[in-house]
């Protein structure tokens, strides 16, 4: 903070005309003397308690704030933790991962399917006239199916039989497919048997084996299931 | 200690009614008309040397057809429905399909296609149905019903196309059928359905009812006029069963090791008792005609005191009376018996097994 220079307008002498007519203008002597004015100003505007501490601080060469300071609210323990996360119900409410039902067309997802075919072909090392490799089952269990054209071959709910479409989304218990009629269908995994076709092979997937979160499925250690009854 | 074994006899039901054909509230017409699939008819009468020819004439010529490997998709062809299902009573039931272990199919004259399928078939076929009421706990069976004569069941409609797809592309279901057709228009020959199927290259054979007749001499016959029927109705039904099985129920035979059965009393010796049995596929119309002929016969001079007509339903048919669900369980019986008297009164027995609803 810079010290006020003597030549600034506030500290400058009153004009000579004003000084000459000071009595007519009823200007007190102490107005002309800054320190007297200041002390009277402080007495009028600052609480006597603060003024006493200020005087004490002045003696101890300390800086003191003369305003009445409102202490800031201390942060609560919840806010103290840092970034708060949504709980499960709030996350469901936000629904940020739900594929929107409107304007999902089969045609727009065909490139995704083409991409998936390439991925699956390289994953299984498929050749048209050869049988699937021995470890294909494990790879199929851990594979990503977004873009696959799945068909429901068998189901506990007969009206789902024959539903076919490109996988748009996978959840723990369902697959969401876009059908050729541009309908978004949610098919439960556990009660259905699915098939897909690739390079002349028709692969059957028992939905019951796929009831895991897709992120967990790729790193999970699988145990063989005793029955494949729906 | 071992748990006590439960040897309860299987539940079955015997319904007894007595009424008169002339009573306008008598329901004999619906009992006959609502029992669609009949595989055998028995006629029994005392004091006659042989079954009257009028009765024989009304049953013997009734021919039926057997078609092999008929695809179910043929039964839902619009052409077939319009020509036969709508213009007559088409009776068809799948042949050699045990209802408790296999899938079985029937077409009711009301224009309903009924499939009784097991769990695997139900899950693969893709047609909506409902759980069978007799398999709630153990093996799972399902009943699928398709209304053929509904106006909305027509090509281009969603339900029709789905059914067609399920029967032809999904699973190419084929069954052997025994069928017969009674056209509304009497000028049309009932063999046209057989012609229609053989025109598709299917093997269709025409069959006739087989008759077996037996006359027993000097046998003990219950005196129905002296019998208190309300107390002894079960005994009489049992005796009719014994006659139909040719069980020797003489007094001296009751000491026999094989059978200790005796005729219920009061009984008297008849010079002869005639029993005839036809096997084949009989429509309710044919049965109604037999009952009418028996009624006429009992009004002729030197008529017998009574005559009985027993009708056996198909044990493996998916339906019994009024299209209600039917199962096999222990015997799959669905039988009814009319005992007809000259004064137009009748006694009616209806017997069903455990997997059947009250007729």
What does this structure look like?
Chain A: InterPro entries: RNase_P/MRP_Rpp29-subunit (IPR016848), RNase_P/MRP_Rpp29_sf (IPR036980), RNP1 (IPR023538), Rof/RNase_P-like (IPR023534), Rpp29/RNP1 (IPR002730). Chain A: Component of ribonuclease P, a ribonucleoprotein complex that generates mature tRNA molecules by cleaving their 5'-ends. Chain A: Pfam families: RNase_P-MRP_p29 (PF01868). Chain A: It comes from Priapulus caudatus (Priapulid worm). Chain A: Belongs to the eukaryotic/archaeal RNase P protein component 1 family. Chain B: This is Ribonuclease P protein subunit p40-like. The complex is a heterodimer of chains A (230) and B (359). The termini of chain A are far apart. A six-stranded antiparallel sheet of chain A has the order 4-3-2-1-5-6. Chain A folds into two domains: 15-90, no CATH class; 106-217, Roll (SH3 type barrels), CATH 2.30.30. By secondary structure, chain A is an alpha+beta fold. The model of chain A has no long low-confidence stretch (mean pLDDT 82). Chain A has helices at 16-20, 29-32, 34-45, 48-59, 77-80, 88-94, 106-124, 136-142, 214-217, and strands at residues 149-155, 164-170, 174-179, 184-188, 192-198, 201-206. Chain A is built from nine helices and six strands. Chain B has 359 residues and is α+β, with helices and mostly antiparallel strands. Chain B has two domains: 13-62 and 210-352, no CATH class; 64-207, no CATH class. Chain B contains nine helices and 15 strands. Chain B has helices spanning 28-33, 53-59, 72-75, 78-85, 119-125, 158-170, 192-198, 229-244, 284-298; strands at residues 13-20, 38-46, 63-71, 88-94, 104-108, 112-118, 130-131, 141-147, 174-183, 204-208, 210-222, 267-282, 307-313, 334-340, 345-352. In chain B, the strands form two sheets. Chain B has an eight-stranded antiparallel sheet. In chain B, strand 5 and strand 6 form a beta hairpin. In chain B, helix 2 (53-59) packs antiparallel against helix 9 (284-298). Chain B is globular, with a radius of gyration of 22 Å. The A-B interface holds A 153-156, 158-159, 161-162, 230 and B 122-129, 165-166, 170.
């Amino acid at each position: 903070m810079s010290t006020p220079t003597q030549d600034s307008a506030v500290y400058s002498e009153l004009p000579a005309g004003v000084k000459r007519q000071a009595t007519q203008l009823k200007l007190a002597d102490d107005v002309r003397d800054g320190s007297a004015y200041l002390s009277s100003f402080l007495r009028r505007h600052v609480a006597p308690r603060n003024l006493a501490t200020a005087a004490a601080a002045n003696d101890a060469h300390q800086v003191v704030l003369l305003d009445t300071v409102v202490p800031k609210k201390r942060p609560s323990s919840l806010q103290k933790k840092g970034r708060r996360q949504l709980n499960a119900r709030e996350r469901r409410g936000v629904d940020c991962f739900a594929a929107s039902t409107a304007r999902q067309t089969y045609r727009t997802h065909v490139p995704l399917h083409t991409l998936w075919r390439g991925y699956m072909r390289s994953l299984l090392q498929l050749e048209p006239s050869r049988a699937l490799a021995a470890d294909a089952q494990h790879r199929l269990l851990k594979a990503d199916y977004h873009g696959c054209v799945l068909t429901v071959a068998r189901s506990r709910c007969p009206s789902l039989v024959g539903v076919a479409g490109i996988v748009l989304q996978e959840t723990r218990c369902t697959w969401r497919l876009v059908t050729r009629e541009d309908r978004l269908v949610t098919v439960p995994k556990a009660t259905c048997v699915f098939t897909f076709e690739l390079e002349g092979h028709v692969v059957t997937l028992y939905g019951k084996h796929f009831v895991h979160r897709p992120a967990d499925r790729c790193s999970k250690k699988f145990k063989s299931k005793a029955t494949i009854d729906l | 200690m071992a748990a006590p074994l439960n040897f309860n006899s299987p539940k079955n039901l015997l319904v007894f009614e007595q009424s008169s054909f002339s009573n306008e509230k008598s329901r004999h017409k619906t009992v006959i008309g609502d029992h669609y699939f009949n595989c055998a008819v028995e006629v029994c009468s005392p004091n006659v040397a042989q079954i009257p020819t009028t009765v024989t004439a009304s049953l013997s010529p009734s021919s039926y057809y057997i078609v092999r490997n008929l695809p179910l998709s043929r039964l839902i062809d619009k052409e077939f429905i319009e020509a036969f299902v709508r213009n007559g009573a088409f009776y068809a039931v799948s042949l050699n399909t045990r209802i408790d272990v296999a899938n079985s199919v029937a077409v009711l004259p009301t224009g309903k296609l009924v499939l009784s399928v097991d769990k695997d078939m139900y899950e693969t076929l893709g047609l909506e149905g409902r759980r069978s009421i007799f398999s709630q706990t153990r093996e799972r069976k399902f009943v699928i019903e398709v209304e053929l004569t509904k106006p909305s069941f027509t090509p281009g409609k969603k339900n029709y196309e789905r059914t067609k797809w399920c029967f032809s592309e999904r699973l190419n279901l084929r069954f052997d059928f025994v069928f017969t057709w009674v056209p509304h228009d009497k000028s049309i020959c009932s063999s046209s359905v057989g012609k229609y199927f053989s025109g598709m290259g299917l093997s269709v054979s025409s069959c006739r009812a087989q008759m077996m007749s037996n006359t027993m001499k000097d046998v003990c016959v219950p005196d129905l006029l002296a019998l208190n029927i309300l107390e002894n109705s079960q005994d009489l039904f049992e005796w009719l069963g014994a006659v139909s099985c040719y069980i020797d129920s003489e007094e001296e035979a009751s000491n026999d090791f094989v059978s200790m059965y005796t005729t219920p009393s009061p009984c008297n010796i008849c010079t002869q008792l005639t029993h005839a049995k036809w096997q084949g596929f009989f429509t309710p119309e044919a049965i109604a005609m037999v009952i009418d002929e028996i009624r006429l016969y009992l009004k002729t001079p030197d008529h017998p005191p009574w005559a009985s007509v027993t009708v056996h339903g198909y044990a493996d048919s998916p339906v019994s009376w009024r299209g209600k669900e039917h199962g096999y369980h222990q015997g799959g019986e669905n039988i009814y018996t009319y005992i007809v008297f000259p004064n137009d009164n009748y006694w009616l027995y209806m017997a069903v097994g455990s997997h059947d609803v009250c007729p």
